[in-house]
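Course exercise 7: structure representation. Students receive a sequence record and must write out the corresponding structure in token form. The form below is the worked example handed out in class, using small monomeric GTPase (204 residues). Read each field label carefully; the graders check that inputs and outputs are placed in the correct fields and that the protein name is recorded exactly as given.

STUDENT ID: A-19
EXERCISE PROTEIN: small monomeric GTPase
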Amino acid sequence: MSNFLYLKYEKSVSVTKALTVRFLTKRFIGEYASNFESIYNKHLCLERKQLNLEIYDPCSQTQKAKFSLTSELHWADGFVIVYDISDRSSFAFAKALIYRIREPQTSHCKRAVESAMFLVGNKRDLCHMREVGWEEGQKLALDNRCQFCELSAAEQSLEVEMMFIRIIKDILINFKLKEKRRPSGSKSMAKLINNVFGKRRKSV
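STUDENT ANSWER:
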């Protein structure tokens, strides 16, 4: 069985690309151009399923992001929201993005199951420059039904991989919930027939 999983990244500058490259190649590259969007693909096997993972990293410049997430709310199966623990402004932007994603769903982008989301505080190797406390990140995640972790893309390859695995598992759980909530064709038809003929019997 093959599933396409679509993850969307948000913020901050080269942080998201660093995490993605860490996950895909286990290498760390510190500097990336941040003024263009990127799409990465990875094939993996998880829980005996063949998965095709597509990771979309938009242009990371705040002024270009503008919270224009309407189309992404339609197709993204999960969101990874990343901030820099040594940059409070990136945390504020991450918070605004989470509120945008979790705000009451409008009719045109209503979902049967809430999107999986992971809040990540990156650059834990820069604790001596910390501006955002661990407790702040944890509270934001709990209040908005997100998973949360702090890590260092520069120093913790395994933790980066485990973060991705955790959100992918959340997405797979959501797929199962959607299937359970979706009535089968035969059940729907049986219900329709029963409604039609049941009404006729009552009227006779």
